[in-house]
Write a structure and sequence with these properties.
The complex is a heterodimer of chains A (261) and B (452).
Chain A lengths: L1 H35 L4 E11 L5 E12 L7 E9 L7 E6 L6 E6 L4 E5 L15 H5 L6 E8 L3 E8 L9 E7 L5 E7 L5 E13 L2 E11 L5 E11 L10 H5 L3 H4 L1
Antiparallel strand pairs in A: 1-2, 1-13, 2-3, 3-4, 4-5, 5-6, 7-8, 8-9, 9-10, 10-11, 11-12, 12-13
Chain B lengths: L1 H16 L38 E13 L9 E16 L2 E11 L17 E13 L2 E8 L19 H6 L10 E9 L4 E7 L15 E3 L4 E3 L7 E2 L9 E10 L2 E11 L5 E2 L6 E2 L2 E13 L2 E12 L13 E13 L2 E12 L2 H7 L10 E13 L4 E10 L4 E11 L4 E12 L14 E9 L1
Parallel strand pairs in B: 10-14
Antiparallel strand pairs in B: 1-2, 1-23, 2-3, 3-4, 4-5, 5-6, 6-7, 7-11, 8-9, 11-12, 12-15, 13-14, 15-16, 16-17, 17-18, 18-19, 19-20, 20-21, 21-22, 22-23
Classes of the chains: A alpha+beta (261), B mainly beta (452).
Keywords (chain A): Lipoprotein, Signal
InterPro entries (chain A): TP_0789-like
Protein name (chain A): Outer membrane lipoprotein-sorting protein
Chain lengths: 261, 452
């Protein structure tokens, strides 16, 4: 009897464990897709407000164009065109996101007519001076962390992710709440080695755009300094059929106005 | 006792719980409740145009002052003292985009207010006045006064033979003023296999070179320094359509590597010779053939560029015309710490008819080395949420035993208001070498700019 119990139950437990691990990866994949890969391409106008620790406000306004590579949920190309503030107006920034190596980045400075190649290996540095990191804007590779489902409610998955290479990142782990119906991450908390939540992402507003649930307002706060950045997206569109050559030197030097309006 | 222990544990759990919120406590964002009932109509935001103007207007106003850190017998002690207003207007009409960028400046250091659009001296410096359009799917055109840049070097130019303003660069104007405008037609052609840029300048556009007005320099003919008391006169090739320039760039990428071939047919952009009769500087004929490659290597970006400078015929043995040269550059840039980028470059300038050059010099003349080696180091650090930039750029020539250090600290007080300070320090063992001759011009400066 005892033996029977062991043979029957043990494999079941193991199986359940394996099934859950798979579910977590499924959830993470879907969340990654919903956050960064909906549609084949897309565009959005972004209004960014950066509040520093002393409450001083700065703002950025830019248009983001995004186009996915052929293979699903892998490489992407981004084109960012600045409208505000005045000193960066007409500047363009281009990223080719690579899965197998560091991203390629270019910056176009109109006053010098200069196309500059940017050496930036650290993805976890500020995106245009905001509290968002490059990686928050373009996505973090899902294979870079191990994921564990720690809680599940009717509405949410709570997933804890631990980096495989701790030397490359500033966090010890992060916790993500993913909305079950849409697979949108609605809150992310980053923890340091001392278990302190020093950085929090919050989705503030979600809208259905072209059939895709889309975060149209979000916030990143630095819980240590008290500074935070809010991003509001407007005029969001998916499947605009952006030609691939938009993401080349030609259009860095000559902004693709048709797609920026 | 037992009860208080339970309470304490509960309290502790509660206190710790503030760190990791439970899923039940998570508030859903606006819009997630009842989602899926259909697409929400997007609020159409009206275009936010600058009110009342029929064109798009941006610009800035700035004040900038600078002083020499030592006395210079040939120049004023002020190196710069100017108020500048830049107006940048843009207007789109159908497929055409018109650009007009004009600087209005008041500059008492060079007390000459007569407007000269070529040299940028006087009250107006016209930076851009052009129209851009795409007559064909695979062709872009920019016609008129424009700023042009290509090549891979960082403040070192081999195949970029578009005009530079060395005075602005050396006295601490914003980096954008290193580039002087060209009056040109640029046609860019694109195809799947390669792209071609053709720039035609119908009348030679020279550099805004060091002529003594602002910066003193060593004159080898005089064997002495000279400055504003004895400024340079020039014999400029200035006939429309005959004293013209042609610059070509054929380029394409191989994966993440950008490669290019270059050709230039024109004149030395800064004085490359002298008229023996008048003493005026000259701009001899010059052809340049070059190539470059740039791409990711290890954790950074590497670049290489080379150029063969074919000077006017007979230049080898003519001391009054600059020798033909081979120029080479190799550079590497990498982020070495958070928001800290370092880059190094090695640059070689080699005289190609060296023996003939040496033989042609009069007795007692200064003899340049066959090879001029130059090493540069740039460090850039961003601070305070990228509102502060600290940068340092050093040129050092082991062959000339001279160098040039540029440093700058800028801080954005608000999105529109920016303050900066910096310096240009020249040093060298001799007073006639490339950077050594400018030692008396070492300066520090400060500026305040309001962008609108």
């Amino acid at each position: 009897m005892k033996k029977l119990f062991a043979t029957l139950v043990f494999p079941l437990i193991l199986f359940a464990g394996a099934a859950q691990a798979q579910d977590v990866m499924e959830v993470v994949k879907k969340a990654n897709h919903t956050s960064y890969y909906q549609g084949n391409d897309g565009r959005a106008m972004v209004d960014m407000e950066i509040l520093d620790d002393q409450g001083r406000s700065r703002s950025r306004q830019f248009v983001i164009l995004r186009r996915d590579d052929e293979e699903a949920d892998t490489g992407q190309k981004f084109y960012v065109y600045f409208n505000k503030p005045a000193d960066v107006k007409k500047m363009a920034f281009m990223v080719w996101k690579n899965v197998d190596r560091d991203d390629d980045r270019w910056l176009y400075l109109p006053a010098l007519d200069l196309v500059k190649r940017i050496a930036a290996s650290d993805e976890r540095t500020s995106f245009v001076g905001s509290h968002f990191f490059y990686e928050d804007v373009s996505g973090r590779g899902i294979e870079e962390d191990t994921h564990e489902l720690v809680e599940e409610t009717d509405e949410l998955y709570k997933i804890k992710s631990v980096p495989k290479d701790t030397g490359k990142v500033e966090f010890a782990y992060y916790v993500n709440w993913i909305h079950k119906a849409t697979f949108l991450p609605i809150k992310t908390e980053y923890y340091d080695e001392n278990g302190r939540n020093y950085r929090t992402y919050t989705a503030l507003k979600v809208e259905m755009v072209d059939g895709h649930p889309t975060v149209t307002a979000s916030q990143m706060s630095d819980n240590v300094s008290g500074g935070k950045t809010t991003m509001s997206y407007s005029e969001v569109k998916y499947d605009v059929d952006l030609p691939e050559d938009i993401f080349t030197e030609r259009y860095l030097r000559k902004a693709p106005r048709k797609y920026l309006k | 006792m037992k009860k208080s222990a339970v309470l304490m544990t509960a309290g502790l759990a509660c206190w710790m719980g503030m760190g990791i919120a439970s899923a039940q406590e998570i508030k859903l964002p606006e819009g997630l409740m009842g989602l899926g009932t259909g697409d929400k109509e997007e609020e159409s935001k009206k275009e936010k145009k600058s009110a009342g103007l029929p064109f798009d207007l941006t610009g800035f106003i700035e004040g900038r002052i600078g002083v020499r850190t030592q006395s210079d017998d040939h120049e004023k002690s002020a190196s710069i003292g100017e108020t500048r207003l830049q107006l940048d207007m843009e207007k789109q009409v159908d497929m055409f985009t018109f650009n007009l960028t004009t600087d209005f400046l008041l500059d008492p250091v060079v007390d000459d207010y007569g407007v000269d659009l070529e040299s940028g001296k006087g009250l107006i410096d016209l930076r851009e006045a052009n129209v851009t359009f795409s007559p064909l799917d695979f062709m872009d055109v920019k016609l008129g006064r424009q700023i042009l840049t290509w090549g891979t070097g960082d403040l070192i130019f081999i195949n970029d033979l578009f005009p530079k303003d060395w005075n602005s660069f050396f006295i601490g104007r914003d980096d954008e003023y290193l580039k002087a405008p060209s009056d040109a037609l640029k046609a860019a052609f694109f195809s799947d296999s390669f792209n071609l840029d053709v720039v035609y300048t119908p009348r030679f556009d020279n550099d805004r070179y060091i002529d003594g007005h602002r910066i003193s320099f060593f004159d080898r003919g005089l064997n002495d320094l000279r400055g504003r008391e004895n400024v340079v006169t020039a014999d400029l090739p200035d006939d429309w359509f005959s004293d013209d320039e042609l610059a070509l760039r054929l380029y394409r990428s191989f994966g993440a590597f950008e490669t290019a071939l270059y050709y230039y047919n024109g004149y030395w952009k800064s004085p490359g010779g002298q008229n023996m009769m008048t003493g005026a500087v000259t701009f001899p004929k010059l052809q340049v053939f070059g190539a470059s490659v740039r791409g990711p290597v290890a954790k950074g970006i590497a670049n290489m560029e080379a150029g063969y400078y074919k000077s006017a015929s007979g230049s080898g043995s003519n001391p009054l015309v600059r020798n033909s040269e081979f120029r080479f550059l190799a550079g590497y840039e990498q982020e070495i710490a958070t928001e800290l980028t370092a880059s190094v470059q090695y640059y070689l300038e080699r005289k190609l008819d060296y023996d003939a050059y040496v033989a042609s010099l009069p007795p007692g003349a200064i003899v340049d080395d066959e090879n001029r080696h130059l090493i540069t180091l740039r460090l850039t650090k961003l601070l305070k949420q990228q509102t502060m930039t600290v940068s340092l750029f050093n040129f050092w020539s082991p062959s000339d035993k001279d160098g040039y250090l540029r440093f700058n600290v800028s801080y954005k007080i608000t999105d529109s208001l920016e303050v900066e300070g910096g310096g240009n320090v020249f040093y060298g063992a001799e007073n006639y070498s490339f950077f050594g001759q400018f030692q008396d011009n070492s300066n520090i400066y400060a500026g305040l700019r309001y962008n609108f």
